[in-house]
């Protein structure tokens, strides 16, 4: 196995934890309006990356003229919809609903991969997906699957569902849109595009409900954390894994998110994991193995 592929497998296991930080921060930073929270995150990401990617932008400046529609598309999918929509939905959606909705995102990626790339959907992959879904359901229903019958979807869940679907589309298109730019430079460009798209929504939000309190250091801390960890860290790792391992395999690692969040909540908030967290992990890990292992070609 090449060093790049070994790194990709390591990042595959790490990226769900990086994304999980965004979930914790979103629940903490309810004092920041959702569009402003997303705008501050991605504008800061762009500004932090720009000095490092500027030489590559200058070298490939001509490619910007050809790739700007894709840059705007990914900025809308990955930074506006996956950013602000999730922050909006988190204000009214329950943790159980959010977990269940996001659990469907990798399935969408696998189905799109099947439709676009003709990726085989083997019995082992199907079994792996079912195991992962069962593990996630155990975590979010606290081991009582009958709680699923009590789920009621409201307006917040629709925002989350839109973000989840957008993430699936982002993951698949990322591999199908060739670029002259490396993943880090593309992330900077996507962040700039997403910030431009978010700007009018943030202004409208400020007019209707008031702007964030820029004198509050918690606002700046929230922006900094979600820019560095789930912004630069998670997106760069995810993009690298998509290129090296493919979108279907990479997206399925997001099933590790609930167990990771449970552990982080224990460390940060003192919430001890329960037996159903351990059961969820025990189901998710073998499910990932089944769902992500390469499919052997059929003999001729």
**Residue-averaged pLDDT:** 82
Low-confidence stretches: none
Q: Tally of extended strands? A: 0
Order of helices and strands: HHHHHHHHHHHH
Task: Please describe the biggest sheet, giving its number of strands, its sense, and whether it closes into a barrel.
Answer: none
Radius of gyration: 19 Å
Shape: globular
The portion of residues assigned to helices is over 70%
Approximate strand percentage: under 5%
The number of helical elements comes to 12
Secondary-structure class? mainly alpha
* N-to-C CA distance: 26 Å
List the helices and strands and how they pair.
Blueprint: H1 3-28, H2 34-59, H3 61-89, H4 95-103, H5 105-117, H6 123-140, H7 155-176, H8 183-209, H9 217-245, H10 247-252, H11 257-269, H12 275-292
Helix pairs in contact: 1-9, 1-11, 2-3, 2-8, 2-9, 3-7, 3-8, 4-6, 4-7, 5-7, 6-12
Task: Please give a structural write-up.
The longest helix has 29 residues, at 61-89. This protein has helices at residues 3-28, 34-59, 61-89, 95-103, 105-117, 123-140, 155-176, 183-209, 217-245, 247-252, 257-269, 275-292. Helices cover 79% and strands 0% of the residues. With 300 residues, the chain is mostly helical. It contains twelve helices and no strands. The two termini are 26 Å apart. The mean pLDDT is 82. It is globular.
């Amino acid at each position: 196995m090449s060093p790049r592929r070994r790194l990709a497998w390591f990042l595959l296991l790490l990226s769900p934890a990086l994304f999980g930080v965004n979930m914790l921060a979103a629940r903490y930073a309810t004092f920041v309006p959702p569009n402003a929270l997303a705008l501050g995150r991605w504008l800061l990401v762009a500004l932090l990356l720009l000095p490092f990617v500027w030489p590559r932008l200058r070298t490939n400046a001509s490619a910007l003229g050809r790739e700007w529609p894709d840059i705007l598309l990914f900025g809308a999918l990955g930074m506006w919809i996956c950013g602000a929509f999730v922050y909006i939905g988190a204000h009214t959606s329950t943790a159980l609903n959010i977990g269940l909705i996001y659990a469907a995102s990798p399935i969408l990626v696998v189905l799109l991969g099947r439709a676009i790339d003709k990726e085989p959907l083997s019995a082992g992959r199907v079994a792996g997906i079912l195991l992962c879904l069962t593990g996630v359901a155990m975590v979010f229903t606290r081991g009582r699957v009958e709680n699923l019958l009590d789920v009621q979807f409201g307006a917040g869940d629709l925002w989350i569902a839109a973000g989840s679907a957008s993430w699936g589309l982002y993951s698949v298109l990322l591999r199908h849109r060739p670029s002259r730019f490396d993943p880090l430079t593309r992330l900077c460009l996507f962040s700039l595009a997403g910030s431009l798209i978010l700007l009018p929504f943030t202004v409208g939000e400020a007019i209707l409900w008031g702007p964030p309190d820029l004198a509050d250091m918690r606002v700046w801390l929230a922006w900094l954390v979600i820019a560095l960890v789930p912004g630069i860290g998670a997106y760069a790792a995810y993009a690298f894994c998509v290129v090296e391992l493919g979108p279907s395999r990479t997206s399925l690692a997001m099933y590790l998110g609930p167990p990771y969040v449970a552990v982080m909540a224990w460390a940060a908030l003192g919430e001890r994991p329960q037996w159903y967290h351990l059961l969820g992990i025990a189901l998710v890990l073998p499910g990932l193995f089944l769902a992500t292992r390469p499919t052997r070609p059929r003999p001729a």
